[in-house]
């Protein structure tokens, strides 16, 4: 069985709605053989990353950057996972009330350093997520999970 790790910082109802849509897509009944593990960014460990076969990252874009919680997750795990997670697929969803470009650049830099493979286009939402935004979040979860099916 493969494992999809969803690392998220979910401080608002909008981030929560996006997170739930990602979970729903990743756990769709048509996706078989993939265990979906959810970890809050402040509680994720290097072992969680090492035990997973792919990742979805979720964060608000605070002041144009990823949340401090998601940054902290990588700060405490980066070197422990650096050589062991190369080539693994990942996806990203961001919620921002301002621009998300800085947050996207940060994730690009971190995941490039780790050697992860972008599995789907990033989902970025400003303001209240619309139905179409949540559908894209669902597709993100399903896409990354489907890539892990044995």
From TrEMBL:
GO terms for molecular function: oxidoreductase activity. This is Multimeric flavodoxin WrbA. It comes from the Bacteria. InterPro entries: Flavoprotein-like_sf, FMN_Rdtase-like_dom. Residues 49-106 form the NADPH-dependent FMN reductase-like domain.
């Amino acid at each position: 069985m493969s494992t999809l790790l969803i690392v998220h910082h979910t401080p608002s109802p909008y981030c929560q709605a996006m997170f739930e849509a990602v979970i729903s897509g990743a756990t769709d009944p048509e996706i078989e053989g993939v265990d979906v593990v959810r970890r809050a960014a402040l509680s994720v460990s290097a072992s969680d990353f090492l035990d997973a076969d792919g990742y979805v990252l979720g964060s608000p874009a605070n002041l144009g950057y990823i949340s401090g919680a998601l940054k902290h997750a990588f700060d405490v795990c980066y070197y422990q996972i650096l050589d062991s997670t190369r080539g693994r697929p990942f996806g990203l969803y961001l919620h921002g009330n301002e621009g998300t470009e800085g947050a996207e650049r940060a994730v690009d830099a971190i995941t490039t350093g780790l050697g992860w493979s972008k599995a789907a286009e990033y989902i970025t939402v400003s303001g209240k997520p619309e139905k179409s935004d949540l559908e894209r979040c669902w597709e993100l979860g399903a896409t990354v999970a489907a890539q892990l099916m044995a």
